[in-house]
């Protein structure tokens, strides 16, 4: 039986669950942007894709995407850039890079579940430091864990998922200063917050900034990137698969970067909606709304399970956080959609509260 030869710890894992939805449902569970390019731009993109040489291996050395990313997001000269098939792939290979025997990974909890998953996959001990109940960072606890455990790798999502809260910048800086190992500042939601560590990428040698195009409208492209100190990035380059990026994604991503005006309009719309949704949620009886710097809002309700069901009854899928961590008791995570979509969510939640 081949199964008998597969690692028992992997056999005991559950696969990452991706919801499959009928077309008439509202999908607000995965921080996808509800907007796409207007038709004229879609047609331009189609032409660009048609002229992409899919008969050739994508040569990373020929790719103009890293330079385009550098321009679009002001990534400093001193940082080297790596591309990943989604930042998920980069999280995986960064974890592999540091997974020496006995190496530890430090994560905050609750945070992005893939950090711990990769620690488990590569046999690293994962140390979870709980956030405070308002989802802010417990700096003394993190610094204590850094000092006593000497983690090889620390993941900080800034802003954090699934809470939406951005930690105080000075606290993240304190963690970077205290750590001997690599600190990955995961800015998947950086476009929605007012702040970034990209400008520092490459200067403290132990800082690596991780970003993605997924949460700004291009989840389907699977395009993540990392910016960090050359010495570290050179090691990472050794273990990335040689052709990990496909040429259609590279073409489409570069097209997107050439139309950042449209992308930024969408981001602005979502930020306006975040403000409106935040205020409206606060008006609903019994709802606690956590301040978000991302394109989702996490709320605590009197009965998250019932509210989740009520949303499902209305063909709206959000993320039920309840049950995944004690600090997330009775919490739901609402991806910000179009004004009409957000109104639909508000109306169901207001009904179930009254
Ligand atoms: C969504 C998300 C990612 C993964 O993004 P991809 O680039 O789509 O793989 C990484 N980190 C955090 C914190 C996320 O929320």
TrEMBL record:
Highest taxon in the source lineage: Bacteria
Residue spans crossing the bilayer: none
One of the GO BP terms on file: L-histidine biosynthetic process
Family: Belongs to the class-II pyridoxal-phosphate-dependent aminotransferase family. Histidinol-phosphate aminotransferase subfamily.
Keyword Oxidoreductase among record annotations: no
Alphabetical UniProt keywords: Amino-acid biosynthesis, Aminotransferase, Histidine biosynthesis, Pyridoxal phosphate, Transferase
Gene3D superfamilies from the UniProt entry: Aspartate Aminotransferase, domain 1, Type I PLP-dependent aspartate aminotransferase-like (Major domain)
Alphabetical list of InterPro entries matching this protein: Aminotransferase_I/II_large, HisP_aminotrans, PyrdxlP-dep_Trfase, PyrdxlP-dep_Trfase_major, PyrdxlP-dep_Trfase_small
Molecular function via GO: histidinol-phosphate transaminase activity; pyridoxal phosphate binding
Quaternary organization: Homodimer.
Cofactor: pyridoxal 5'-phosphate
EC number: 2.6.1.9
Domain Aminotransferase class I/classII large: 24-348
Catalysed reaction equations from the record: L-histidinol phosphate + 2-oxoglutarate = 3-(imidazol-4-yl)-2-oxopropyl phosphate + L-glutamate
Pfam families for the chain: Aminotran_1_2 (PF00155)
NCBIfam families: hisC
Metabolic or biological pathway, per its Swiss-Prot or TrEMBL entry: Amino-acid biosynthesis; L-histidine biosynthesis; L-histidine from 5-phospho-alpha-D-ribose 1-diphosphate: step 7/9
Sites bearing N6-(pyridoxal phosphate)lysine, chain numbering: 215
The name this protein goes by in its record: Histidinol-phosphate aminotransferase
